[in-house]
Predict the structure.
Amino acid sequence: MTSGGDAGRAPVLSAERISKSFGDVQVLFSVDFDVLPGEVHALMGENGAGKSTLVKILSGFEQASSGTILLDGEPVVLPPNGAAEALGIVLIHQEFNLADHLTVTESLFLGREVTRLGLLARRHMRAETRRVLDQLGSRIDENALISSLSVADKQMVEIAKAISRRARIVFMDEPTAVLSRDETEVLFDQVRKLRARGTSFVFVSHKLDEVMELTDRVTVLRDGQWVKTAPTSALDGEAIAQLMVGRELSSLYPTKHEPDVDEEIVLSVKDLSTGFVKNASFELKRGEVLGFSGLIGSGRTELMEAVAGLRPRLAGEVQLKGVPLAPLDFREANRRGLAYMTKDRKGKGLLLGEGMTANLTLQSMERHLHHGYLDPASEAKAMARARRRFDIRVRDDRVRVGRMSGGNQQKLLLAKIMEVEPQIIIIDEPTRGIDVGTKQQIYHFIAALAREGRSIIVISSEMPEVIGLCTRVAVMREGRMVGMLEGEEINEQTIMRYAAGLKRQMAS
């Protein structure tokens, strides 16, 4: 399955006719895939296409139902649960495989501790950890506890683990989802250096621009089947998107809904401060989509959690339709029509070990009570409505939510939020870690909500997203609102100037 000029290089790892079923549900259908020495190979597809399952099979974390895996041309049965690392095959999980109580050094050397005269060589291991972190351009303290690190720093530790194990093949599942642009550049530079030394990478990502920038070849899966493998240089972003969804994406972003100038103010925030956010003020109109942009760590999430009653306010006032909202009262905010959708769908948004229905009705149980008991028929009706409304696609209704694709999880989380019929919806990172087809669906859903007269705040680290969706964009920097942009001001250059501190329009 090598292409064109790659025909002279034998794959270091190959999958031949790989199929996989979970019970009665088949998720991969006779898929071929190979990885050449010293290449970055993108694996792409919509959520639910089978990418994560294939990656887990090729790294030993899942076993194929049928098919053959070859390492250096020889059939091999990969050992389970990460033991394939001994063969030079490393998977950097989307969900971090780190223990909070360990230090960074202990995490890197877990299971392969260095000893001298029967004692742990702690100084040697710390020095080696420091060397690898410096190689990545990371300032993380090698003695820091994992529990004290940011999400981005935890990602860097996972990458450092792979490098320290001298991996031959590194699988990276959405590695940049939580990284800033600068951190992403550091990672890409390191990948390029390792590629030049012969290390191979499989890069699972939904970010078309990153795929075009970094990778040598692209393989697209759709509905569990192989669609195409081609050199990245032979494709463009539009072609890849079309291969993924099986249709042309003529309009990723819907037409914006512009509220009337004299439209009702449904949310007013005045001089709100938290531990980090200082004196934030803004208003939200009925039927408006208001964007919040800024670099990671600028305070966007902290501000909105305080607005929604999930975080204490040190000062300031929040009003819903002119009536003050008490601080730290999320239930009251919900009751009065304000809903908050977290960016952490797996940690805070959904119960991964439960089914879809239990998740859907978790915030709206009182709507499904009959004589004081949950009414299964009412819940089933709500689930059927949510599946239609949000196009939640699962092959088995009984599936645990943790087994669902990222896109279906995100649509279920949206459905859960909308079950309480809110008039104001705060959505934090609406499309993190989901494919382009599902992104389009969510964008059009947000636009439809605005046309219905609901008001939406979109927090996003993807500038094209806030530009494409929002009629006004607030920019935050270091805990302060520094700009409120409208009309032609809403462009990447202007947003970045405010976000980087090169421009400021709002009072401190």
